[in-house]
Amino acid sequence: MRIHDLSPSKGSRKSTKRVGRGPGSGHGKTSCRGHKGQKSRSGGSIPPGFEGGQMPLHRRLPKRGFTNIFKKHYALINIKDLARFDPNSDLGIADLKNSGLVKKVGDGVKLLGDGEMTHPVTIKVNKVSKTARAKIEAAGGKIEII
Questions:
Q1: What CATH number is attached to the domain comprising 79?
Q2: Range 101-110 average pLDDT
Q3: Bridge-partner residues for 76, per DSSP?
C-alpha cells in the first residue's frame, strides 16, 4: 500500500450539494431556498442576535460597570525571576524582553516583591512595589525608575 492508494472510508465523506443545475438534479430553479422571503434573496442574511424585530436579549439586559479607557497595563515580573541573571548585572527592559521574562511591555514593566533576592543587581523599570524595593536594596542592588 502506498500513499496514493489511501482513500476515506465508504460513506465517511459526503459530496457537496450542487444547486442551481437544472430541474433534473432536484436542486434546480429555487436552489433549495424555497419561494420569496428574506432567506431566499441574495445577500439576505439575518445578523446574529436578531430576534425577528423583538428587542434582542443583549439590549434587554441592564448595563453594569465601567471600563476605564485610561487604565495602564504593566508587564509584571517578580524578584524570584531575577535569580537567573548574574550578580551585579545591569538590567533594562530590553534585557528582560530578550530573556523571555517580559513578552508584551504595554505601558511599562512593574517589579513585584514575590520571592527572595540573594545577589545584587541594578534594574531599570517603570514601577516597583515597596517590598520589591526593600528586598533589592537589602541584597545590595539598585533600582532606577525610567
A1: 3.100.10.10
A2: 89
A3: 110
